[in-house]
Amino acid sequence: MNALSLAGEPAAPADSSQYLTFLLGGEMFAIGILSIKEIIEYHDLTVVPMMPPSIRGVINLRGAVVPVIDLQARFGRPAAPVTKRTCIVIVEVDEPEGGAQVAGVVVDAVSEVLEIAAADIEPPPLFGAGVRTDFIAGVGKVRGRFVILLAVGRILALEALPDGATLVEAASLPGGGHQAQSLLPRGAPAAG
């Protein structure tokens, strides 16, 4: 049985890894702790016109424009209502050509940080789980239940979103030109 990295590739041998678990639509999901920068309260999103439904908007995170992705919509499910437990998990993923992509993902509630042994991680299922299987890095077995380990790099691949070309509009945000440039699909022209 092979452990998988968040990118979905075989991981370097390790006894265990830590994951932040959270609820989404009543199911337990997890993201590797090394990809997580911080967890913030859900607040004041700026809606950007003509975005795909899975992008709720952008936030100002200490002067940087950060896109906020609704994981429920990204998985093809209806968006969950915002409650007092809803929060935004800020993640950072290394880009193949260097640099890092920072984005927020909306979750229903953060649960806990779990350590999952490599032996307790199965490869993604070939069907089911209600999520595109390319978004799944593996399935962890924890205390008699399953936790879906997400391939955060694939989820944040904005060029794979429907209407990805409309991300050019984000470049016209006041003060957001160069930060919004990182939201553009590879090869797309910048506005302005």
TrEMBL record:
GO terms for biological process: chemotaxis; signal transduction. SMART domains: CheW. Signal peptide: none annotated. One of its GO terms (cellular component) is cytosol. Gene3D superfamilies: CheA-289, Domain 4, SH3 Domains. InterPro entries: CheW, CheW-like_dom_sf, CheW-lke_dom. Pfam families: CheW. Residues 16-161 form the CheW-like domain. PANTHER family: CHEMOTAXIS SENSOR HISTIDINE KINASE-RELATED, CHEMOTAXIS SIGNAL TRANSDUCTION SYSTEM ADAPTOR PROTEIN CHEW. This is Chemotaxis protein CheW.
